[in-house]
User: What shape does this take?
Amino acid sequence: MTIKKFQGKTKEEAMEKAKEEFGENAVIMNIKELKSKGIMGAFKKSSFEVTAAIEDREKFPEKFSNPISKEQPLQKGTDNINLAADEKITIPVQTQSKREEYAPVKTERAVEKEMPSVRNSDDIEKRLENLSNILEKKLSEDEVKIREVQAASNQNLEGFKFMKMLYRTLLDNDVNEKYVNQIMDEAEKVTHSGSSVDYILSNVYQKLILKFGQPNGIEMEGKKPRVLFFIGPTGVGKTTTIAKIASKYKVEYEKKVAFLTADTYRIAATEQLKTYANILDAPMNVVYSAEELNRAVENINNYDLIFVDTAGFSHKNETQRIDIKNLILGLDEQYEKEVYLVLSATTKYKDLLEIVDSYAEIASYKLVFTKLDETTSYGNILNIRLYSGADLSYMTSGQNVPDDIEVFNSQMIVKQLLGGR
Ligand SMILES: Nc1nc2c(ncn2[C@@H]2O[C@H](COP(=O)(O)OP(=O)(O)O)[C@@H](O)[C@H]2O)c(=O)[nH]1
Ligand SMILES: [Mg+2]
Assistant: This one.
């Protein structure tokens, strides 16, 4: 095939030139308007270029014998040959491989060259199979992770709500906010994200038990006699508590118990203790000073336990406080001594703080909490235990002598503080 370009001022002129040279069998492959380039082009007139082709005479001699053939009308082709006008070129018959060389897309061979490791289709299949296995594994791993994250976040939310509920419950039970925050902060440190409700509960429970410390009743080790002072505000239950403990030790442990009272402010108070002493068949004496105390103790020094009842006083009453302090400090050092501060669980937190402060000046003591039967919020017990740092000893929950007393039961109190009943 011979291809040539013809130019003219009009399309017709260019086509006429093609027909003149190639005859009527010429195939018009393309007609193109030629525009001058640049700004100047806008002022110049355009011309036309016709690309025409004619079959080679050698290959189709018969066609050239009849230059005008009605069966071969003028046809438009595509403008894929960009040659200078009038340049005559011959396009050789293309083989498959030749065409590939000019193909604008990359051949398989070229792709293969770029991926030298992929040698054949088996390799590709294997690779794809591996890839899909990896992908499937990754997806299922991701799915498990997503499920785990979802479960954890649900549990987190549950745990968070539960912590909040415990926080509220402790506050509702009058645990001071400062201590509630402390306990929850400590619990949060050991509970990891996603901790179960049970785990959180047992953790907070343990924290509270530890805060209450190991409660201690009367120590029976050491020398006899052991002198036990009961101090605290009026009406909290000092005398009743003495009666309860003394009867337990007398009846259950068969200990020799005796009573002394320094509560000389009320005749009724002395009478009250005398009554219990008579029931228990135990000696009872009134003491007004440290000297009298030492003399009285000496008289009954073969007894195991000597309970000393004291008068309650207003924490604002300096004189009474000094009297009690002198009494306790005045006890001869040869005697074992213990001091019990008796407090009612029904007393307001603010009052309790003042009481604890004023009694702290008298001696170091163990705490007895009374009247637990008259309140449901035991927060103050924890507050005072933490505020004073003193050990817990007994708790009483009723007026019955000797039954309504036990060594402080931390487990029971903690359960109540956490909302158990
Ligand atoms: N409900 C209740 N009342 C108690 C308890 N302990 C003592 N009481 C009562 O509190 C009142 C004062 O007790 P008392 O021993 O005289 O207190 P004191 O002034 O500290 O010696 C008495 O009516 C006791 O029966 C208790 O645990 N619960
Ligand atoms: Mg009393």
Summary: The pocket of magnesium ion (ligand 2) is lined by residues 238-239, 263, 269, 309 (CB under 6 Å).
